[in-house]
Amino acid sequence: MTIKFRRFSDFLSIVGMKAAGKTTVTKAYCKELRVLIFIDPTWQVGELGYVVHFPERIIPAFEKFKKVIYQPKKMDKETYREAFAACLSLTNYTLGVDEIDKFARPRWYLCEEVREIINRGRAQGIGLICNTRRPHMIHNDIRSNSDHVICFKLHEERDLKYMSEWMGIDKSVIKELLKYESLYYNVHASTVTRQRPLY
Questions:
Q1: CB atoms within 10 A of CB 171
Q2: Mind listing the pLDDT tens digit for each residue in 27-48?
Q3: In the chain, how many domains are there?
Q4: Which member of 11, 17, 121, 164 lies 3.0 to 4.6 Å from 117 by CB, making a disulfide possible if both were Cys?
């Protein structure tokens, strides 16, 4: 199934346990985009665009190449704040964030810039694609702002419960997914569709 993802406004959340297909699908959607910034703390998607390692290089690289992968050399709060501030200063692109739970936990944001992007980014033409292995550890603003959700197999009880409540299905449906199978939840239509591997 192809999601009708509006690249300058929609919010796609991708969740799943390790090696279930989450990162591969994230890459597949991002590869199709012509204008992208990707926050890549685990250095997994460097092939998608021009790689930079320092926040001050994000904007110049974006202006020149239009597809920028930020792989931080330092992983402290201030460095990430500068990176997200750079992203927030731009318009009309899609922002990808790997392991969004590192930046937006249930009771806190890493920085105000992350909160602004999640809650108001679409108003300035920022679409968002994010993923996580631990959906119960993401901020509720992600849940309330997502337009599309792709859920791969999960096994941790808290994650199963969280996603079953979010999508309105029994958690056994998620737990019994085969490797690389997923569920697509269209938030606006309130429909859940089982998908064979997307790749």
A1: 17
A2: 999 999 999 999 999 999 999 9
A3: 1
A4: 121
